[in-house]
TrEMBL record:
<dbReference type="GO" id="GO:0006915">
    <property type="term" value="P:apoptotic process"/>
</dbReference>
<dbReference type="GO" id="GO:0005737">
    <property type="term" value="C:cytoplasm"/>
</dbReference>
<comment type="function">
    <text>Plays a role as an inducible effector molecule that mediates Fas resistance produced by surface Ig engagement in B cells.</text>
</comment>
<dbReference type="InterPro" id="IPR010695">
    <property type="entry name" value="FAIM1"/>
</dbReference>
<comment type="similarity">
    <text>Belongs to the FAIM1 family.</text>
</comment>
<keyword id="KW-0963">Cytoplasm</keyword>
<dbReference type="GO" id="GO:1902042">
    <property type="term" value="P:negative regulation of extrinsic apoptotic signaling pathway via death domain receptors"/>
</dbReference>
<keyword id="KW-0053">Apoptosis</keyword>
<protein>
    <recommendedName>
        <fullName>Fas apoptotic inhibitory molecule 1</fullName>
    </recommendedName>
</protein>
<dbReference type="InterPro" id="IPR038513">
    <property type="entry name" value="FAIM1_dom_sf"/>
</dbReference>
<dbReference type="Pfam" id="PF06905">
    <property type="entry name" value="FAIM1"/>
</dbReference>
Length: 208
């Protein structure tokens, strides 16, 4: 059996039931799974799953495998479910719309934006780096509007200072010295360029 999920971008993805069951142990109980999304936030990449019973109207929302919402009987098959995601309690909503007959479309909103809009905005407001230190992977995220730094889901303690060509934000990861340098690109469209330096080595930015 294949499960059809309509993404916010309008792109439909088909998820094979056998693949889904092998990846999510808790899906043993899920017979009405209709959509799966992965959302990158500052505190990590979160998986959102949605069950919709088109006969009973049942709605179940899972975030990272944990049940957040369960409604067993709903007379109205269309509508919206709102919840929060991650340590930052980011607002999220799943819209349920009838397409035709018994077909439904499911779209995810993050902070009031469609998933596509949210991703586009996030690319402008954050920088993400993935690095390996001592056989452990670390995901570091800079929120450019607040200069907050997150590492593997935790907000880091940082120390900022002004330097000759911009600013530096210092912090430590697993006893390794880290610094995010912010310098002007000299171009209005590019704005400020942020670079992560770990142990005097520049880390390439990751694309999520």
């Amino acid at each position: 059996m294949a499960l059809l999920a309509s993404m916010a971008s309008g792109e439909e993805i088909t998820v094979c039931d056998d693949e889904v069951r092998s990846r999510y142990s808790h899906l043993e109980k899920m017979t009405d799974l209709v959509a799966v999304w992965e959302v990158a936030l500052s505190d990590g990449v979160h998986k959102i799953e949605f069950e919709h019973g088109t006969t009973s109207g049942k709605r179940v929302v899972y975030v990272d495998g944990k049940e957040e919402i369960r409604r067993e009987w709903m007379f109205k098959l269309v509508g919206k479910e709102t919840f929060t995601v991650g340590a930052t309690k980011t607002k999220a909503a799943i819209n349920i719309d009838a397409v035709s007959g018994f077909a439904y479309e499911y779209t995810l909103e993050i902070n009031g934006k469609s998933l596509k809009q949210y991703i586009e905005n996030r690319l402008k407001t954050t920088n993400t780096w993935i690095l390996n230190l001592g056989s452990t992977d670390y995901r570091i995220v800079l929120e450019k509007d607040t200069m907050d730094v997150w590492c593997n889901g935790e907000k880091m303690e940082t120390a900022g200072e002004f330097v000759e060509d911009g600013t530096e934000t210092h912090f430590t990861v697993a006893d390794h010295s880290c610094c995010i340098k912010a310098v002007s690109s000299g171009k209005r469209k590019e704005g400020i360029i942020h670079t992560l330096i770990v142990d005097n080595r520049e880390i390439p930015e990751a694309v999520e």
